[in-house]
Amino acid sequence: MTEESFFDAVGGHDTFVRLVDAFYDGVADDPVLRPMYPEEDLGPAKERLTLFLEQYWGGPTTYSQQRGHPRLRMRHAPFKVNPDARDRWLAHMRTAVDSLGLAPIHESQLWDYLERAAFSMINTFED
User: Fold this and answer.
1) What pLDDT score was predicted for residue 113?
2) pLDDT at 1
3) Which of 3, 23, 65, 95 is deepest in the core (most CB within 10 A)?
4) Which InterPro entries does the entry link to (predicted)?
């Protein structure tokens, strides 16, 4: 008997697409975060985040197949990620997580990870 992955327990691909879409709805109009996404269209960023989160939570390994090891801190190093950027990222992600209506245990697990990840991305305390 195999244990169900978090990915499957929360609804799989569709749930992660909804999460990422709701998150980037907030980022699109955020004057601090939007400049961190150089593409005109947020589509490529949405796809990368969706694939990363799916893989992290036990879904397909497409992210690593396409991009290699996540190396999150290295990939974010070119951008100024200060406490303000972290807090804005978390605010948009909080709205996105809340929109999913997950079971409390799943919401708590997901939020715990997202919060830890956001704090670990800080690379400057300058404004």
Assistant:
1) 98
2) 65
3) 23
4) GlbO/GLB3-like, Globin-like_sf, Globin/Proto, Hemoglobin_trunc
Q: What confidence score (pLDDT) does residue 10 get?
A: 98
List the one residue out of 12, 80, 82 whose CA is nearest residue 4: 12
Task: Write the single-letter amino acid at 103.
Answer: A
Identify the CA nearest to 15 among candidates 4, 23, 7: 7
Closest CA to 47 of 30, 68, 66: 66
Q: Cα angle at 98 between 109 and 11, to 5 degrees?
A: 65
pLDDT in tens, 54-112: 999 999 999 999 988 878 888 888 889 999 999 999 999 999 999 999 999 999 999 99
The helix/strand/coil state of 10 is coil
How big is the CA angle at 40 (ends 88 and 38), to the nearest 5 degrees? 60
- Structure tokens given for 115: 């919060």
